[in-house]
Amino acid sequence: DSPVILKILQNWVPRVSHYFDKEHYMYAGHQIVIQESIEHFGAVVWPGALALSQYLESNQEQFNLKDKKVLEIGAGTGLVSIVACILGAYVTATDLPEVLENLSYNISRNTQNMTMHKPEVRKLVWGEGLSEDFPVSTYHYDFILATDVVYHHAALDPLLATMVYFCKPGTVLLWANKFRFSTDYEFLEKLCSIFNTTILAEFPESNVKLLKA
After folding, report:
1. How many domains does the chain have?
2. pLDDT by residue, tens only, the chain of 213 residues
3. Which Pfam families match (predicted)?
4. Which of 114, 118, 149, 199 could form a disulfide with 3 if both were Cys (CB 3.0 to 4.6 A apart)?
5. CATH code for position 70
């Protein structure tokens, strides 16, 4: 099947301050307020997160997250994890240690008064300590979510190893990324050689592709 051609909808109102930047979004009937930090790449909302959030909201029959176990790798500001939580998933949001404070703040702030499953925030360094921190005997996920994780070229092999580690039979990986460099396409080729991969949607104005593996 050909990928759907979509446009990232302008469903947020930017609020600018000198140091922290709060963005207001609307997904799945909920206003989501995201605090960004200019100190870290991971603490900014990238276009892949907007694309995947929009797709999950619009395709709930195709990808029903209710009561599913969802792991987001490279969760950044937490927008995608928050949307998955609103859609009823058991969410574990992970990222590097220096990003966790802002990530935890955004997730708790946007999910604290809701009746869905309480999300979890955990440290995950790609390719490091996976079997110790997430033993296969205990942790199994229905969905792995990743957005704009392919940009730091030194981390691509550990990233792929992490995706392979968490993807067991029956697990669906949803990866949205802004394609900027030749290395992005090289990573996609490696992914396709390991996984059964489909391009679900493309957002040409943003150079974002959304893939299912």
Report:
1. 1
2. 788 888 887 665 444 444 456 788 999 889 899 988 766 655 678 899 999 999 999 999 999 999 999 999 999 999 999 999 999 999 999 999 999 999 999 999 999 888 679 999 999 999 999 999 999 999 999 999 999 999 867 789 999 999 999 999 999 999 999 999 899 999 999 999 999 999 999 999 999 999 999
3. Methyltransf_16
4. 199
5. 3.40.50.150
Which structural domain, as residue segments, surrounds residue 154? 22-212
Domain for residue 8, yes or no? no
- At CB < 8 A and 24+ separation, what contacts does 157-163 make? 157/127, 158/125, 158/126, 158/127, 158/128, 159/73, 159/126, 159/127, 159/187, 160/187, 160/190, 160/191, 160/194, 161/126, 161/127, 162/73, 162/124, 162/126, 162/127, 162/130, 163/73, 163/191, 163/195, 163/213
